[in-house]
Design brief:
By secondary structure, the chain is of the alpha/beta class. The protein is about 30% helix and about 15% strand. It has a single domain (about 10-200), classed as Glycerol-3-phosphate (1)-acyltransferase (3-Layer(aba) Sandwich). GO terms for molecular function: 1-acylglycerol-3-phosphate O-acyltransferase activity.
Amino acid sequence: MKIPARGGCVVASNHVSHIDPFTFAHFLYGHGRLVRFLAKAEVFDIPVLGRLIRATGQIPVYRLTTDAQKAFNAAVEAVQDGKCVVVYPEGTITREPDLWPMTGKTGAARIALTAGVDVIPVAQWGPQDVLAPYAKKPRLFPRKTITVKAGDPVDLDDLRGQKLTPDVLRRATDRILDAITKELEDIRGEKAPAERFDPRRRGVREIGNPNDPAKRRSRRNGER
């Protein structure tokens, strides 16, 4: 079994739909794990849903702000306490045109290397057929197939104990995304692009609907 039955761990997955946290949580629950997601802070303000995710111990992420450190500290504490924490390394639904994993943030690597726990790479495919990225209405019929596949823990042994420099964190993050992509290639029966999609270099907004004509959010003015 790829998902550890107990003990703290980071589970890192690709992100293809707004509904995949629910299908992914169901997958992990089937493996006996109650999970802690790093979820964007705005979700915690939604009536009913916000109360539910707070009650289940989910971790708010204040994207593109200095408050992001709070999520990191909470996640480290959770895995050190034996919890299973889910991280989407891409930080948002992929902007890659064919929904392959794109470049990622270093959060999953930082949590795992700081807490000394494993990172389990998981690929999921099919949630986007139920609810396409940023679509408002799901397509429930005909019945859709959702496939979730976990891989072996990412090998980070040579990086453990090192100072968490940008280079070390980037190397760890690349390995995590490579492992997720490998599992997704197996599910899809296809090869991912040789070069990983980078939204910054492509001029695509980092959060929110990339098709929204509104002005791209700026780190400088602190918008979320």
